[in-house]
Amino acid sequence: MKNTIVINTDIEKGKINRNIYGHFAEHLGRCIYEGIWVGEDVNISHTKGIRNDVLNALQQLNIPVLRWPGGCFADEYHWKDGIGTREERKRIVNTHWGGVVENNHFGTHEFMLLCEFLGCEPYICGNVGSGTVQEMSEWIEYMTFDGESPMANWRKENGRTEPWHLKYFGVGNENWGCGGHMRPEYYADLYRRYQTYARNYGENRLYKIAGGPNVDDYNWTEILMKQAGAFMDGLSLHYYTIPGDFWKGKGSALNFTEDEWFISMNKALYMDELITKHSTIMDQYDPEKRVGLIIDEWGTWFDVEPGTNPGFLYQQNTIRDAVIAALHFHIFHEHCDRVQMANIAQTVNVLQAMILTEGDKMLKTPTYHVFDLFKVHQDATLLAIESDIEIIKRGEIEIPKVTVSASKDASGICHVSLVNIDVENSANVELFLQGIEGNLELSGTVLTATVQNAHNTFDQPENVSPAEFRQFQLENDTIDVQLPPMSITILKINS
Ligand code: AHR
């Protein structure tokens, strides 16, 4: 069957918030330590303790915002342990993640430096679960107050004269689970209380994010919006793509069947239903869509790689992960009126990572390349699309073979991203461009593979990497495209 897609280049549906391409880095396994922070006394090339190979690779992605320090870790993190002379910082146990020693060498100053190097906004998640209102309030004072105060003076003593700019602040994490096992009514009240003392100092304006629902807990969204909606700028949502069962076996990142491929795709596409239903509830309390839905944890979650610490959540990353990432972006784009930020879990060495490291070696995963290819959509205008797409069936599962998104950037260039979900067959697509005039210049890039578990290794780091895409014919305003199986393609259209 021929799939047809009409792109209305003159019908704008909204702006794709660049923060949808955000990241998340937790004190978990080898994400922060080894993956990002190596300290100043090692043979690995670094700038002020941050490894240069990873930094350079991440700088390419134009990361807009980085969430830290957790995750579950955030609700046990006491920020005062992580400032001052590094050797004197408290050594604590990371109870959530592997019971390993956390030496607190990567703290507020180091995180802010990382954000400065990446040119991104910091997004800090505060501790509600085991921290006090005073502790949270003082952290914000420490970071953002420009004047004479105990916390600002302390910051200066620790070498930072100017306050930092901090916009995004989360009031706890997964408060229904590792963040305190609270009921929504109780958390709504706590949220109101903690956020009261999250002050705006000087010019700094906080965008306050309340801990949101677990997957399809619509009651949580309802209660939070009703009782605390007026006090928040964003409400978070967490949803992971897990092909198997969270407790009984999630499935392997590398050894999976074609059936598991389709199950994974179906589960990834479920994000659309979740956003739609949570948004509908939010619409009742916030019809102007002032409050953003902040999907600050998403991505694949598989069993850890055999032989690795089960508490470190280290998994390989294949073309399946890349396709899933692209599907998520298409869904986030469509909901750009409500989704103001999303943060993939996690940046390095944990879950659906962009980068894997081993000693002084590093590799870019297939997911990295999707972030790189899709960065052209950041802050671009979403274009209206009509489509007629084949449905593929596998047992009970029925999913579209192809998904698509199109945007126009500030200079008028259109980018169309296309995903062929089908693991076996290529997809023929006829693309009609409406509202575009003159001679078109067209070029493309594709990320694909010949086996469903294709991935990059430290010996073959380029196994899955982008290539020029030529399988298209352009005639007037119509493009005939042949998408390879399991592929992600980006077309650049200049008129
Ligand atoms: O990303 C791993 C963990 O998943 C986070 O710490 C937690 O918030 C979620 O359950």
Automatic annotation (TrEMBL):
> What domain of life does the UniProt record list for this protein's source?
Bacteria
EC number(s) given by UniProt: 3.2.1.55
Cited InterPro entries? Alpha-L-AF_C, ASD1_cat, GH, Glyco_hydro_b
Query: Which SMART domains does this entry report, sorted A to Z?
Result: Alpha-L-AF_C (SM00813)
Q: Domain named Alpha-L-arabinofuranosidase C-terminal: which ranges?
A: 296-487
What is the reaction catalyzed? Hydrolysis of terminal non-reducing alpha-L-arabinofuranoside residues in alpha-L-arabinosides
**One biological process GO term for this chain?**
polysaccharide catabolic process
Instruction: Report the GO molecular function annotations.
Output: alpha-L-arabinofuranosidase activity
Instruction: Tell me any Pfam family this protein matches.
Output: Alpha-L-AF_C
Q: Which UniProt keywords apply?
A: Carbohydrate metabolism, Glycosidase, Hydrolase
Query: How is the quaternary structure described?
Result: Homohexamer; trimer of dimers.
Q: What is the protein named? A: non-reducing end alpha-L-arabinofuranosidase
Instruction: Record the organism.
Output: Heyndrickxia ginsengihumi
